[in-house]
Amino acid sequence: MNSLERRNLLTNKINSLKSELDGADFMRKLDLKDEILELEKELGTAKLHDGNADDCEMCGS
């Protein structure tokens, strides 16, 4: 499997997990979010913040 096929497979899996979020209960949503984060880390698309408020878009810097 080449890198493009692998990326597409991971992206499809992420999209599938995101679609499951709608009807899931709270604990299942937490599990799905963890799975999505792990896949995004593998893809290199995860946005993780180190706790610095200046870097956070939500904190209104």
What topology does this entry show?
Blueprint: H1 3-20, H2 26-43
What distinguishing features does this structure have?
mainly alpha; 61 residues
Fold and architecture overview:
There is one protein chain. With 61 residues, this protein is mainly α. The mean pLDDT is 85. The protein is built from two helices and no strands.
Structural class assignment: mainly alpha
Please outline the major beta sheet: none
Task: Extract low-pLDDT stretches.
Answer: none
Ends apart, CA distance between termini: 42 Å
- Give the helix proportion (percent range): 55-70%
Shape: flat
Helix-strand topology string: HH
% residues in beta strands = under 5%
What is the count of β-strands?
Answer: 0
Over all CA atoms, what is the radius of gyration? Answer: 14 Å
Count of individual helical segments = 2
User: Overall mean pLDDT score?
Assistant: 85
What's the quick description here?
This protein is mostly helical and 61 residues long. The protein has helices at 3-20, 26-43. The protein is built from two helices and no strands.
